[in-house]
Input
Amino acid sequence: MKNREYHIPFSGLKDGKHQFEFAIDHTFFAAYEYHDFNTAAIQIAVELNKLSTFMELNFKANGAVNLNCDTTNEPFNLDIHAEIDLVVKFGDAFDNENEALLVLPHGEHQVDVSQYMYEMIVLAIPAKRVHPGVLDGSLQSEVLDTLAKLSVKELKEQKEEIEETDPRWDALKKLLTDK
Output
């Protein structure tokens, strides 16, 4: 992504801590061809600590994305809270192989932070996205009704069998617990 909006110019900054703010929406993710979000509203605060030979970057993201539930396909808002740290050093050639260390060539005067912001947000999304209404039982959906009807009946039967124990086995079970 070659958008200068997400570049932090550091060459004119004095040593010490500096704050940068970025507002991220769904168009940011479209540039990466990531279309899992319906909408996004995320604020990212970047604290740059410039030292004489290297820099430390601390990213903090807060906001929400709207995405579809994996179970019901119903859209819902998911709060995003994420944080990563990055160390920027200077060397002979560009190297971003290490996720926590970025090496910029000598003479570089700005750092593109868009890839780090993208990865931080995408990795903050759980692997299975479930609508909060599914978890607490408050969501009414045709999909949930259909899933309940088609659920495995063996589990229900096994639960009933566990409750109805044979009294002849109770004496043997008591031997195991008497140890």
